[in-house]
Design a protein that fits this description.
The complex is a heterodimer. By secondary structure, chain A is α/β, with parallel strands linked by helices. Chain A has helices at about 30-40, 55-60, 75, 85-95, 95-105, 120-135, 155-165, 175-180, 190-210, 220-225, 245-255, 285-295, 385-395, 415-420, and strands spanning about 25-30, 50-55, 65-70, 110-115, 135-145, 170-175, 235-240, 270-280, 305-310, 315-325, 405-410, 410. Chain A has a single domain, classed as Tubulin/FtsZ, GTPase domain (Rossmann fold, 3-Layer(aba) Sandwich). In chain A, the strands form 3 sheets. A 6-stranded parallel beta sheet of chain A has the order 3-2-1-4-5-6, with helices on both faces. In chain A, strands 7-10-8-9 form a 4-stranded mixed beta sheet, sandwiched between helices. Chain A has a two-stranded antiparallel ribbon with strand order 11-12. The two termini of chain A are about 40 Å apart. Chain B is globular and about 85 Å long. Among the domains of chain B are: about 85-160, Dna Ligase, domain 1, CATH 3.30.1490; about 195-345, Nucleotidyltransferase, domain 5, CATH 3.30.420. Chain B has helices at about 50-65, 105-115, 160-170, 185-190, 195-200, 230-240, 245-255, 285-310, 335-340, 365-375, 385-400, and strands spanning about 5-10, 15-20, 30-35, 40, 45, 75-80, 85-95, 120-130, 130-135, 135-140, 150-160, 175-185, 200-205, 210-220, 220-230, 270, 285, 320-325, 345. In chain B, helix 6 packs across helix 7 (about 245-255) and helix 8 runs parallel beside helix 9. Chain B is of the alpha+beta class. In chain B, strands 3-2-1-6-12 form a 5-stranded mixed beta sheet, with helices on both faces. In chain B, strands 7, 8, 9, 10 and 11 form a 5-stranded antiparallel beta sheet that branches. Classes of the chains: A alpha/beta, B alpha+beta. Chains A and B meet through helix 13 and helix 14 of A and strand 5, strand 7, helix 3, strand 15 and helix 6 of B. Bound molecules: adenosine-5'-triphosphate, guanosine-5'-diphosphate and magnesium ion (MG) (2 copies). Guanosine-5'-diphosphate (GDP) binds near residues 31, 81, 116, 118 and 143 of chain A.
Chain lengths: ~425, ~400
Amino acid sequence: MTQDNFLDQDTVFSKTNETPGIRAKIIGVGGAGLSLVDGLRLDNFQSVEQLAVDVDSRALSECIASEKLAIGRRHTRGMGTGGDFALARKAAEEEKDSIRKKLDGMDVVFLLAGLGGGTGGGAVSVIARLAREAGALVFAFCPLPFSWEKGRHAQAEDCMTELRKFANAVVPLPNDSLLQIGGADATALECFAEAGRNVSKGISAICSLIFRKGMIDVDFVHLRKAFYRRAGRTLFGYGEGEGEDAIRHALRELMLCPMLHLPEVSKAADALLILITGGTGMGMSALQQAALEIREEFKAGDHVVFGAHVDENMGNRVQIIVLGATDLEAGVKADVAPVADQVIMAKPKSKQSHASKLKSKPIADSTTKGSKKTRTGKKDQVDQNTFEFMEEQNQRGIFDDLSSRNLYEGEDLDVPAYLRRGVKIAV
Amino acid sequence: MSKIIGAVEIGTSQAKALVGEVGEDGSLNVVGMASRPNEGMRKGEIVDFRKAAAAVHAALEEAEKMSGTTVDSVYLAQTGAHLDGQMLRGSAFVASSDNRVAVDDLQRAESEAKRRQPETGRSYVHHVRTPIVLDEKVVEDPVGLIGKKIDVGYWSIDGDDQAIRSALHVISNYSLEVDDLILSSIASATMVAGPDLRRAGSLVIDLGAGVTDLVLYHQGYVAYTGVIPVGGDHVTGDLSMGLRILEPYAEKLKIEHGKASPDPSDDEEDVWIIGNKTIGDRSVSRKAISDVIHVRVVELFEIIRKELGSLLDANELKGGILLTGGGSQMPGIEQVAGKVLGLPVRKAGFPPGIEPELAQPENATVLGLLHYGLQDHSLPGQKKDQEQTGFLEKLAHTFGIG
Ligand SMILES: Nc1ncnc2c1ncn2[C@@H]1O[C@H](COP(=O)(O)OP(=O)(O)OP(=O)(O)O)[C@@H](O)[C@H]1O
Ligand SMILES: Nc1nc2c(ncn2[C@@H]2O[C@H](COP(=O)(O)OP(=O)(O)O)[C@@H](O)[C@H]2O)c(=O)[nH]1
Ligand SMILES: [Mg+2]
Ligand SMILES: [Mg+2]
């Protein structure tokens, strides 16, 4: 079910206060995960616990998380894994019982881990699995290696696949793209910090939904239902606006959010969470309109969770956060040449000609790609034609098909060149 | 009596169909031509059969209507990263006691060269003949000459059966036959690089929407072909992501304002995305547009440079490097290409006699198909079509057509 009636709900203006009983924990795993935990700004949610997990005991000792768990000491005596994710996976398995204890009673678990790292990539899927087993809803935010970290991509991809088996939503944070979010002169570290703040926004949004009472409320059951299936691709974005037309501005900024314009990011969402936070002046009809537009933009299916919160500190500002997920397992339709198609099914092995690095690749099985579910929403009569045209084109997305990578010298040529080369584009 | 022939390129952005009339004197006259947007394709390969077929059929229908006639068969262009080329060589000792070369000797050399079969699941799409060598000397036609040993070579392109089959089905579903499969790059080069340029040695680069097709000629013969799965769609996709706009707007911006290199003169100037300055419209800087494009095209030519390696030799490429295909219309692209490849690069033109409205770089492939198809590529003494017919019959059989 959904909040089908969310637009008709009675307006309940209430002061924020915490919903008791629900427990959440943020877990940083490995170097990148720990540094994300250190950068979190979650002052409003004191009750959310933070745990750092690492093989590297020095990194662990420097982290500000309140709880810490060292794993793999037997194997490395507190040194890092040296990028060996199999080792980290094993270490986490061996430490299962202590990890379970840390997960006991959790309703929501946020995992932060760099999938290109040994510890982050290896241990995170084990923790995700244990968290699911413990009954928690699992959201993961995962930095992915820069294009130039060539040795780490295959591993990161493996770890992502593994993690997606257990997490309810995995938000990829490709480091190439994080470079784009800082200003023109921002250093990599500043960009990482900015990315950390964005992750905070995402986590805060989910926490707000479950811990606070709002203007339009979501309870935990809704959230659980929406993200119940394990997720494929996700989308995560935010926007902020100020002044008279704050919601409009926030919407506009949301649509331009760099995190929504990445190759890995889905353009549609089967499950979509929308949280709008604003000052006391936030109008109900503008809210409803915004929710409608967002829903339409992401072609959201049945599972929409919409929450609106009033926060006096926001003044005349409005913030919108969206988090969505598509279920990769659903809605894939076969699309093959209709005649005599069973004649040859053998997949050729790739082979090489002279010194070419362009391997002739087997054609990705056409049954596994393309044909996304087409959803139709209500459309504005006036702009119907343009809209339909845009929607059609939108779905054609040149980089949409992630089932086959266009690899050349270890880089995916379908990923925008400016991202891979770290060239900043000023929008 | 004149003869009607057809040509089809199932291009990633546009399906293009052409109807030509061959006069009794062998002259070719284009009597019908049409293009239709093709949404069924990515990077030169069919991903949505119905959409690709619909585009091709609509283009064929329109071209036929324009010509006032119908075609029975077409030459079909082939591209896609699944294609793979290599040189196949064969030789034969001259059989007769007086050492005079006979047609039969040539054919034995040919069969030996083509003996090698592609891997399971792959088929040959195109064998391109390279020079005939008689006792280590290149000869036009050895039949009747005296010598001991004949060497022939074929630059042979094989491809994935599934991809080839889809393309053939698009044509057979319109109840047409395929006269021949011709590599897109070779078709384009036939149109924009005349015999003199090919003899002098030249490289033709067709910048399409989904792929970039390459063909390199040494001394008049194909020495290398390649398909790089990067094209104008990547430029558009990069712009869409980099400027955070929908792809149709990105495509429009690219065509109206795109440049291959940032131009200092339009420094801080902005352009409107939609152009009507309504709500929802916004402006972006020209610099942002050309920055995005520049990185992509530089990378593309770097890949070409790496792929060609030592083939990129100024002494062997006196005919120069020519750009064609829709993407070659990007201002400044030849300078970027020249810089990366380290050799002079120019935009290709069309030979006189092609009507101006047809003589557009996007049409190089489809026009070239007809011209290439009309030429005789068989071995001396062999009937034209003899080899191709057998080869296509085999393909058709493999794929359950005809
Ligand atoms: N003025 C222009 N500037 C830049 N690019 C252009 C221009 N005009 C057309 N293009 C691009 O050229 C491409 C279309 O070229 P073309 O028709 O040769 O490709 P195609 O044959 O459909 O594709 P392919 O050969 O890759 O299958 C599109 O990507 C289009 O954006
Ligand atoms: N976004 C982000 N990525 C990081 C950070 N630190 C390291 N990484 C990336 O994470 C990967 C290395 O993982 P790391 O966490 O250091 O290794 P681990 O400790 O073995 O898990 C590389 O791909 C880095 O680019 C960080 O602070 N932020
Ligand atoms: Mg580490
Ligand atoms: Mg083309």
